[in-house]
Structure formats: C-alpha cells, structure tokens
C-alpha cells in the first residue's frame, strides 16, 4: 500500500495490548478500575490541599499540581483505549492521534519538571530553613510551575509540527494502546530522520537537566543532614523527602524499564506492556505514596471526608 499524505489520511489502527477477544472484557475492567482509582486518588489530594489552610505551603502547592498533571496524563491515553475495547474497534483518527501525542508529551514533561521543582523545594527547606519563606515565595512557586508548562508546550508543539510533515498509509497499524511518538515514527512512510534527531536531543535534555537538578538537590540535602547533630532533626527532615524519593524512583525506574525492555526484546508488545507501568500504574500509586507517608495529608483527607460526610448527612436529613 502506498504512503498517502497526511491531508487525506483518515485514521490509524491501535493494536492495543492484546488482540485476544477473550481478554478484552478483563482488560476493560482492569484499566477502568485503575483509571477511576487514579482520578479519585489524585482528585482527593487536590481537594485536601486546597481545602486545608495548613497545607497552603509551596510543598503542597507543587503536590497538588503534580496530582492534576497525573489525572491529565492518564486521561490522555486510557479513555480512548476503553472506548475502543467497548466498541470492538481499533480506529483512532489522524487528529486524535496527533492530539494524543501532543498532550502525552506535555504532561509527561511537566510531570518530570515538577519532580525536579519539588526536589529543589526540599533542598531550600532543609538547607536554608531560615530563608525558606523568602526564597520559596508564592510568586516564585507560580513562576516555576508556569515555566514547566511553557517549556513543554513549545517542545510538544515542535514535535507535532515535525510529525505533520510525515506521510502515512491509510489504516497504518500502531503496535501500542495509544499513539506514542516513537511508535508513530516507526510506521511513518516517509523519512523521519529530523524527527528522530529532535526526539533524541529533546529527550536527552529533558532527562539530563531534571535528573541533574534532583541529584544535586539531594546531594546537598544529604550533606546538610550529615552536619546535623540531632538524630530527631535528621529523621524529621529526611521524612519530608521520603515520599518524593519514592515517586522519583518509581517515575524514572519505570521509564528505564520501558527503555530497556524495548532495547533488549525489540518487541512492540513487550514495550506496550511495560509502558503501562508509567502511564497507568505510577499515576495511580502516587497519591497513595504521599497520603500514606505524610501525616499532614492524611489529616487533611480525614477532615475533608468528615466534612463531606457531615454535608451528606445534612442533605439527607433535610
């Protein structure tokens, strides 16, 4: 089949995680449950932070932004897969596919940058506690979050503009459960060298700079903790970092796992299954990690649920 220009291309075919019809109901139920848990868990974090004045600090401001990004990130990929399973279809339109690629890049990158900003926040809080409120003022916090979004908006836009230059065959099969850029470039019917170069350069920069920031922040934090004489102060300072360390490890660990699985096996199916870890499992676990490890968040959630229950009881009685 000859490659057709994108102006007349109508749709792609998403092969999904499995073509076995007997597995489709199981996959639908599993991913619907995981999606609902992800949305509900992260939404509760946002509501708890916004409704509790004790959590109106930079640390929890960044956490609520991270939860919002996790909801958007998961909503970019899972709903379309659930609709296709339910409709017994593999179709995704050309515009839907490019939109999925664009928002996937944006939310993945913002997620990455927010983890770096949160590491910087912990560095300032532990290494410069007396100047913390001065340095991490509301204006800087908002500016840091806006910078994360602006950088990724432009990088994703360039990727999409480059992708629109490519030609594809009508009914091109994408061996994935969503339109991932790497898979899209593999099935392109025209030369994608410029796209590949930009993807590698942007990907390297988006990994190297955030990782350098996180490692530098924690190197300074560990150095500061080593100089503390009080064991109690060391434990209290380190306990504020544990949840973030877990989330960073999960985020980069699953990302490395996906890269290694695709490099070693060269199997699109294996890569798709591994991608589930950082597109679905990681966003689902993050609210549990922060709520279970953080007394302030647990207290805010209890107060939120208590107020909600009281309101519901009042409505019922009325």
TrEMBL record:
Pfam families: 7tm_4 (PF13853). Residues 41-290 form the G-protein coupled receptors family 1 profile domain. InterPro entries: GPCR_Rhodpsn, GPCR_Rhodpsn_7TM, Olfact_rcpt. It is found in: Cell membrane. One of its GO terms (cellular component) is plasma membrane. The keyword Membrane applies. One of its GO terms (molecular function) is olfactory receptor activity. The chain crosses the membrane at residues 27-48, 60-81, 101-120, 140-162, 192-216, 237-260, 272-292. Belongs to the G-protein coupled receptor 1 family. This is Olfactory receptor. It comes from Marmota marmota marmota (Alpine marmot).
């Amino acid at each position: 089949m000859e490659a057709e220009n994108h102006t007349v291309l109508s749709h792609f075919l998403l092969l999904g995680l499995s073509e076995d019809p007997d597995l489709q109901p199981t996959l639908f139920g599993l991913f619907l449950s995981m999606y609902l848990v992800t949305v509900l868990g992260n939404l509760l974090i946002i509501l708890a932070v916004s409704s509790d004045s004790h959590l109106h600090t930079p640390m929890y401001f960044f956490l609520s932004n991270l939860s919002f990004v996790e909801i958007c990130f998961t909503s970019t990929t899972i709903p379309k897969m659930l609709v296709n399973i339910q409709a017994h279809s593999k179709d995704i339109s050309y515009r839907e596919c490019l939109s999925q690629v664009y928002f996937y890049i944006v939310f993945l990158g913002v997620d990455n940058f927010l983890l770096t900003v949160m590491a910087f926040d912990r560095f300032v809080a532990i290494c410069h506690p007396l100047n913390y409120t001065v340095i991490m003022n509301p204006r800087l916090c908002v500016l840091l979050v806006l910078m994360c979004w602006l950088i990724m908006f432009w990088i994703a836009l360039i990727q999409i503009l480059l992708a629109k230059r490519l030609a594809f065959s009508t009914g091109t099969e994408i061996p994935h459960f969503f339109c991932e850029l790497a898979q899209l470039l593999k099935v392109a019917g025209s030369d994608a060298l410029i796209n590949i170069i930009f993807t590698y350069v942007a990907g390297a920069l988006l990994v190297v700079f955030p990782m350098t920031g996180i490692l530098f922040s924690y190197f300074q934090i560990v150095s500061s903790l080593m100089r503390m004489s009080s064991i109690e102060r060391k434990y209290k300072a380190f306990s504020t970092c544990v949840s973030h360390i877990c989330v960073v490890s999960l985020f980069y660990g699953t990302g490395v796992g996906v890269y290694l699985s695709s490099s070693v096996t060269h199997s699109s199916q294996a890569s798709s299954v591994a991608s589930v870890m950082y597109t679905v499992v990681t966003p689902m676990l993050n609210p549990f990690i922060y709520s279970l490890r953080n007394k302030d968040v647990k207290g805010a959630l209890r107060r939120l649920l208590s107020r909600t229950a009281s309101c519901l009881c009042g409505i019922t009685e009325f």
